[in-house]
From TrEMBL:
Keywords: Membrane, Signal, Transmembrane, Transmembrane helix. The chain crosses the membrane at residues 56-72. InterPro entries: TraA_dom (IPR059173). Residues 1-32 form the signal peptide. NCBIfam families: TraA_gammapb (NF041281). It comes from Azomonas macrocytogenes. This is Conjugal transfer pilus assembly protein TraA.
Amino acid sequence: MTQQMTRHQQFQLLMLFTVLTLMVLMSSTAHAGTGGEYFDDVWATIKDWTEGTLGRIIAGAMILVGIIGGVARQSLMAFAMGISGGMGLSYSPQIIEGIMSATLSSAAAVTSSTHQISNGLGI
């Protein structure tokens, strides 16, 4: 009985290696992060909305609701939430582009200061 299981396991192992070999041989090269031009129009529209008149109206409404909620509850927390929501909406396109962009505008300054801190000699 154990020999039959061993043969069965050997067959399964052979099939696994065959499938893995075929997957490696038939796979194409993957390029992460390339392309994406399809959504540029959508991002431009959303960015224009949030930075334009619509975004200002929504941010102002959030601040106004926060002020009214703060007065009604006699708490500064609702006021702070309205202000922070409006600011978050206003600055969200710049934050998203800063996180998702692949370029760093201050990389040279950060790199030189990191070398200065890391060894203490400024080399």
